[in-house]
Design a protein that fits this description.
The chain is α/β, with parallel strands linked by helices. It contains twelve helices and twelve strands. It is 39% helix and 13% strand. It binds pyridoxal-5'-phosphate. The site of pyridoxal-5'-phosphate (PLP) has 15 residues, from helix 3 and helix 4.
């Protein structure tokens, strides 16, 4: 039996390698390795795809989040509300600004922020809400935006896992005040290295972000802020420009794969498996099932023995991380998140995953779960 990896980014290279090679050669020959036309072109193409008026590239999704909050003047003494069930960057970047992450629990069915809990977490220090569109699925933005407006809070969308997802007709990243994207290779639009972008309809945010990513310098050797060096390499911009037109097709394939997983799993009627809630506007960065309490790690290792590699996003919630001891959250603070962390299992998911491979995964799960 052939090994089934959790993701396989080299398959895109097999599909469009010639075009990627040519784009890379063009940049190498041009001598323009930082900035230049290829970067502005990609910024513009990406902004058009999202539908935002402004889009500014940077070196990673992490930098996009951090510099977006800096552009909004978020810092020491401020609080930003986010979820404890996400990649560390979401909270890490809040802390990097000097502000304090304030966590609220998620919904079990969507794995996203339970927006009904936002208001109970708002204090006079709250400056912003950071929803994370986890695994490709949009957060309930209608309710969230109404609460933000009522309390005069900024909304920073962490879109790192949801490039191309939409909510009520708008693309994520074009709903809050600023959208933050990652082009890390395993994201839906992945480069061949690190990369990030913000999208916004607020010219002031875009301008300040642009200055901050270049040493806080509106004009070379004149510095208005403490910024950093966070540019998107010309090489990455050129490669991403080649890949962007394929994103819709790849996201469509991910949707088909997720539908097929759900059909196969439901037909197998497995005890101890909960399939993810159907969501037509998700872009399925991950297909994540929940396994009965106490059985997840056994199932994962049994799958590994059968050459099927799965992932656990995320094993330890952020409020229980060593680094956040001082925030004072106890175990039990966020029961849904804590329960989910013990039960989630992300199955192999990438646009080129074949039907036969999916069948192999589900058959293996059936074999394992009828014996636990
Ligand atoms: C990947 C990711 C980030 C960070 O993006 P990088 O480009 O790796 O810095 C932030 N938030 C979430 C939810 C992510 O999945």
């Amino acid at each position: 039996m052939n090994k089934i990896p959790p993701f396989d980014v080299s398959q895109q290279y097999q599909q469009i390698g010639d075009r990627l090679n040519q784009a890379a050669i063009d940049v190498l020959a041009s001598g323009q390795y930082v900035g230049g036309q290829v970067v502005t072109q990609f910024e513009q193409s990406f902004g058009e795809y999202i539908g935002s008026q402004h889009s500014v590239a940077c070196n990673s999704g992490t930098d996009a989040l951090y510099l977006a909050m800096r552009a909004l003047d978020i810092g020491a003494g401020d609080e930003v509300i986010t979820v404890p069930f996400t990649f560390f960057s979401s909270a890490e970047t809040i802390s990097m600004t000097g502000a304090k992450p304030v966590f609220i629990d998620i919904e079990a069915h969507s794995f996203n922020m339970n927006v009904d809990l936002i208001e109970s977490a708002i204090t006079e220090r709250t400056k912003a809400i950071m929803p994370v569109h986890l695994f490709g699925r949009p957060t309930d933005m209608t309710k969230l935006m109404a609460i933000a407006q009522k309390h005069n809070l900024y909304v920073i969308e962490d879109c790192a896992q949801a490039t191309g997802a939409s909510y009520a007709g708008a693309r994520v990243g074009n709903i809050g005040h600023v959208g933050c994207f990652s082009f890390y290779p395993t994201k839906n639009l992945g480069g061949c290295g690190d990369g990030g972008m913000i999208t916004t309809n607020d010219a002031a945010i875009a301008t300040k972000f642009r200055i901050l990513r270049e040493h806080g310098s509106p004009k070379r050797y004149y510095h208005d802020y403490i910024g950093m060096n966070s540019r998107l390499d010309s090489l990455q911009a050129a490669l991403l420009q080649v890949k962007l037109p394929y994103l819709e097709q790849w996201n469509h394939q991910r949707r088909q794969i997720s539908d097929r997983y759900t059909q196969l799993l439901q037909a197998a009627n497995l005890p101890n498996v909960i399939t993810p809630h159907h969501c037509p506007h998700s872009v399925w960065n991950q297909y994540t099932i929940c396994i009965g309490a106490g059985k997840r790690d056994y199932v994962q290792s049994q799958l590994r023995d059968r050459q099927i590699i799965t992932m656990i996003y995320y094993p330890l919630p952020l409020h229980l991380q060593e680094v956040y001891k001082d925030l004072g959250y106890a175990k039990g603070a966020f029961p849904v998140t804590e329960d989910i962390c013990d039960r989630v299992l992300s199955l192999p998911m990438f646009p080129e995953l074949s039907e036969a491979q999916q069948q192999q995964v589900v058959e293996a799960l059936a074999e394992i779960l009828t014996n636990v």
